[in-house]
């Protein structure tokens, strides 16, 4: 262990004949100046006792000057890192463009890099070096030590991927904190470090055309963009910034049209999230301290943009407050004491819907929501006035629906409140608190995005529990969340129906045996008796838990952080995302097919029915003997099938032909031999018309529809009259025809009847039968015209009193009579 130090000239970096790029990465990364400057630099290296010192070669003044320079620059850097993110006053977002001087950081980080930049897969990127080194020091070690520890923990294939090392260094530091919002987020340096880590995960190696072959080129991470895959992997690992379920939707909101998240957007987003938390704490302490047991979530002010509460077609402005359990509405009144009304959101019958409101019951304004606590409680109709559009209503709808969905999730997937088995699982008693914290963070993020004006078309996609209610595969994701919230280590032997809970449980999943429980990656147990939701018995649930049984590949740091692998929540969320994307694509095709205008829809219907129309036209050509050889061939084939008893094979053969045709078209499409436009339905747009022409066209279309419906109704009324014997003679004739047809079907084989029908169809247009067929059809038309329609009675419009049943009318009459007092009854008795 004895060693001595010598001063030797600085060696070159492992990069070939070029200098490292430097820029804003210098805050966390390593950089070197040109080789000319490095000729006169020195560094301290450790040598063994076997080496000899040459003290005469040591320049003490140069060594002292260099060490003083390093110490000064290190102190400057640490002061900058320790500077707070949010400064008091002004409410301004932090300026991401306030970097440390590049030249100072250059020298300092050259001495801080301990890992080798050259790897079997290529040179590490500057972002990877910066992330690994800084998180290693935050973990109390150097990058080289972390690299050695990680190499001892994983296999060679995992160690060879620099992305896994970046994850390990980052997740190891983040796993040390379990707070609601990570405390280091207040530091601008930590925000930059997380952003650099996402860039490092995104591009762990330098590209060939990057800066290693361009000396003195500086790279600024402020111009870099983080893409979805890296964002979804790293951002949810930081407490309070994102969750695994809606991280992809959060990325879409932050990225917008840029395609990625810039550091400016990232820093602004974090500052807004922190600002929402701080404002919530201040308002909770100052104005809502009386709300014991409830956490304040959001306030709709009464002055700037009031909320209107509609009651009996009257709107009253007021102040709306949302907590994690209820809604509070404080009306603006002339009295000094204002009445505050409360609407509970934790009940089973709680629901929220989007509605239209307006004066006198007219649905003129589409900017309101209807909130109901139970079937017996009053329904609140709240209008959110927003001159910029309807996003304010949609955001509040997402807020309220998230609270309602939270308690629905807790009732369906969590244990009952009075369940004593909660005490047998370590940490299960805090499961409700974890679920509430997750919902509160979702609402906080949505508020931050609202302030940034970066929202999706449907804000409900950005809140976790509300999103899972309508998402495909959402039940399975809820199961994994329940395991994450209420699962824990068994602290004692627990028995359920005489069987021990400490049974053999296969990790990562659920067994086919109904007595076994569900186990998470870290061994956390979710008891079988807590699985009260019917979704646990579905085939999709059983398939997911069975497929979640592979051998663990990564390094487990905590229940929510796994290096080089995915947690159960991540796996379920990934499948949910894929299925939701399929649903969105399908819905997009449906929306594109919803063409406006009656003429355009008629043209589309004709285009879709074109194949059937062509088949009908060709059959008519055969029936009219326009091509006699073809008609004869068809009849020979048809009679052969009939008299050879091959009719049972027609339907299966048709299905086989359709299936083979579909597979053939699939193969041709995969080969690209059908063209891109194959399968598209093309119609021509209607000619331009003014408003009057459109009104006349709509009127004519309505008249045509009315005439068509009248003809159908008349035919149905005639049939009804025949069935109910409204015309006895016609009813008798129809009944005789039906009985004769039934007798013929019973006595004569079906093939002879079918051959006779086919003969009749193909001989109607021939000369020897044409006149007879015309006379027969004229007779049928004459008899049909003489059949009267069933009578129709149209009653006048009834009011509500006329619609009331006789009992209600009797009650109304009793109420209308004057009430008699006991004294008047006594007087009547005396009179009698």
Automatic annotation (TrEMBL):
Residues 795-832 are annotated as: Disordered. InterPro entries: DUF639. It comes from the Eukaryota. It holds the Pfam family DUF639. Residues 808-818 have a biased composition (Basic and acidic residues). Keywords: Membrane, Transmembrane, Transmembrane helix. The chain crosses the membrane at residues 646-665, 734-759. Residues 819-832 have a biased composition (Polar residues). This is Uncharacterized protein. It comes from Kalanchoe fedtschenkoi (Lavender scallops).
């Amino acid at each position: 262990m004895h060693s001595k130090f010598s001063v030797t000239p600085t060696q070159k970096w492992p990069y070939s004949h070029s200098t490292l790029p430097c820029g804003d990465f210098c805050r966390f990364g390593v950089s070197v100046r040109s080789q000319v400057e490095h000729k006169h630099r020195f560094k301290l290296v450790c040598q063994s006792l076997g080496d000899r010192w040459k003290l005469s070669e040591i320049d003490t003044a140069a060594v002292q000057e260099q060490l003083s320079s390093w110490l000064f620059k290190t102190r400057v850097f640490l002061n900058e890192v320790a500077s707070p993110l949010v400064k008091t006053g002004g409410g301004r977002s932090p300026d991401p463009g306030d970097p440390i001087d590049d030249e100072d950081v250059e020298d300092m980080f050259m001495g801080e890099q301990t890992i080798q930049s050259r790897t079997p897969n290529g040179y590490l990127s500057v972002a990877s070096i910066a992330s690994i080194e800084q998180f290693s020091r935050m973990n109390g070690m150097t990058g080289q030590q972390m690299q050695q520890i990680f190499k001892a923990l994983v296999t060679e294939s995992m160690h060879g991927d620099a992305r896994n090392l970046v994850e390990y260094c980052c997740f190891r530091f983040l796993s040390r904190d379990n707070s609601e919002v990570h405390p280091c987020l207040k530091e601008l340096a930590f925000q930059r470090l997380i952003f650099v880590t996402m860039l490092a995960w995104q591009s762990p190696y330098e590209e060939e055309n990057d800066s290693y072959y361009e000396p003195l080129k500086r790279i600024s991470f402020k111009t870099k963009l983080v893409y979805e895959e890296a964002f979804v992997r790293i951002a949810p690992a930081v407490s309070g910034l994102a969750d695994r379920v809606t991280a992809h939707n959060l990325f879409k909101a932050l990225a917008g049209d840029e395609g990625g998240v810039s550091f400016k957007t990232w820093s602004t987003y974090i500052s807004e999230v922190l600002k929402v938390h701080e404002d919530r704490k201040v308002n909770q302490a100052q104005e809502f301290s009386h709300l014991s047991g409830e956490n304040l979530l959001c306030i709709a002010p009464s002055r700037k943009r009031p909320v209107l509460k509609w009651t009996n077609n009257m709107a009253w402005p007021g102040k709306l407050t949302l907590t994690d359990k209820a809604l509070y509405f404080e009306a603006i009144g002339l009295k000094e004491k204002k009445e505050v009304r409360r609407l509970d959101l934790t009940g089973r019958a709680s629901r929220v819907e989007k509605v239209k409101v307006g004066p006198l019951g007219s649905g003129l304004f589409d900017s309101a929501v209807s909130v109901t606590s139970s079937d017996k409680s009053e329904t609140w109709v709240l209008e959110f006035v927003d001159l910029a559009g309807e996003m304010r209503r949609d955001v509040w709808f997402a807020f309220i629906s998230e609270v309602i969905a939270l308690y629905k999730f807790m009732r369906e997937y969590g244990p009952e409140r009075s369940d004593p088995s909660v005490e047998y699982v370590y940490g299960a008693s805090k499961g409700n608190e974890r679920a509430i914290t997750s919902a509160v963070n979702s609402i906080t993020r949505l508020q931050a995005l609202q302030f940034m004006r970066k929202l999706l078309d449907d804000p409900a996609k950005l809140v976790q529990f509300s999103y899972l209610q309508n998402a495909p595969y959402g039940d399975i994701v809820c199961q994994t969340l329940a395991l994450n919230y209420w699962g824990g280590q068994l602290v004692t032997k627990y028995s359920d129906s005489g069987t021990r809970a400490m049974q053999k449980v296969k990790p990562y999943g659920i067994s086919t045996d109904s007595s076994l429980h569900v186990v998470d990656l870290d061994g956390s147990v979710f008891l079988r008796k807590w699985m009260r939701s019917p979704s646990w018995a579905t085939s999709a649930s059983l398939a997911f838990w069975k497929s979640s049984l592979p051998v663990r590949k990564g390094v487990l740091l905590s229940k929510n952080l796994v290096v080089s692998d995915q947690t159960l929540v991540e796996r379920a969320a990934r499948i949910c995302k894929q299925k939701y994307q399929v649903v969105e694509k399908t819905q997009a095709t449906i929306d594109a097919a919803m063409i406006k205008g009656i003429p355009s829809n008629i043209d589309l219907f004709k285009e879709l029915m074109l194949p059937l129309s062509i088949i009908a036209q060709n059959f008519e050509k055969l029936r009219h003997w326009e091509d006699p050889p073809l008609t004869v061939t068809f009849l020979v084939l048809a009679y052969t099938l009939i008299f050879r008893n091959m009719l049972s094979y027609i339907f299966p053969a048709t299905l086989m032909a359709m299936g083979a045709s579909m597979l053939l078209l699939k193969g041709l499409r995969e080969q690209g031999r059908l063209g891109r436009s194959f399968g598209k339905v093309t119609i021509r747009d209607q000619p331009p018309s003014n408003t009057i022409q459109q009104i006349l066209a709509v009127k004519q279309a309505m008249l045509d529809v009315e005439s068509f419906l009248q003809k159908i109704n008349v035919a149905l009324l005639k049939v009804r009259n025949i069935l109910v014997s409204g015309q006895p003679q016609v009813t008798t004739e129809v009944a005789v025809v039906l009985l004769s047809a039934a007798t013929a079907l019973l006595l004569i084989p079906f093939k002879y009847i079918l051959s006779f029908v086919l003969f009749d169809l193909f001989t109607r247009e021939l000369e020897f039968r044409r006149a007879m067929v015309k006379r027969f059809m004229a007779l049928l038309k004459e008899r049909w015209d003489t059949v009267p329609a069933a009578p129709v009675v149209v009653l006048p419009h009834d009011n509500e009193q006329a619609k009331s049943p006789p009992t209600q009318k009797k009650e109304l009459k009793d109420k209308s009579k004057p009430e008699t007092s006991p004294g008047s009854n006594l007087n009547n008795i005396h009179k009698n």
